[in-house]
Amino acid sequence: MMARSLLVLVFVVSVAPAGEQKRVDLSARAKEIVEKQVQDWKGEGIRIQVIEEKYLAEVFPKHKFVAVHFPLWPVARVAPEPMKSQNLFAVSNDRKVTHLADSTKLEEFFKKTLKAEVNPDKITRGWLRLRMEYIQDGFYKFKYPETAKEGPTASSVTILYGVVEVVPEGGNKGTFTATLRFKQDGQLASLSEDNKVLRGMRPRVLGD
Length: 208
Fold this sequence. Notes:
Oligomer: single chain
Strand content: 25-35%
Structural class: alpha+beta
Number of helices: 4
Order of helices and strands: HEHEEEHHEEEEE
Radius of gyration: 20 Å
Distance between the termini: 75 Å
Number of strands: 9
Helix content: 25-40%
Number of domains: 1
Largest sheet: 5 strands, antiparallel
């Protein structure tokens, strides 16, 4: 009995790190691919981050998302075309890179890529997590909702919404609300937003 228990324990311990290592490897690979793309576009001085939230990975199991920011403060670094100051990239498991230059491109990606069987709550939270990268300037802290809330009852769509709170520091304050509408088959039909994020103090060059 003891030998059987030991065998099971060894199996669990040996398998779990392999899955974790695969996730880390995919993230590192996605970051490397995006860095190479940015270099090809002559981008320099970027901040780059792989977005690792578990619920986002469940919504898009075949993609990793990488945020690329060109600093805006105290001196703005110009982003070369086709990039902007705030960018998202979606990297598929087969290494295909999609540049999501703005929230319109992000919405197109959601509608094209999402599967109907994915949980609408996670889709809503995933949208908010990615959407805020187009607002983030390096000086915000955001509090993301743990769950989405149900909106008004409608006959043809399911409505969910989520609210991101700005942590009140340095004059930063406000909220960002996204409302997503899902068809009866679970597909994303449309979305709307209410941006009440207010920017606080930012560092400037002496004499500016």
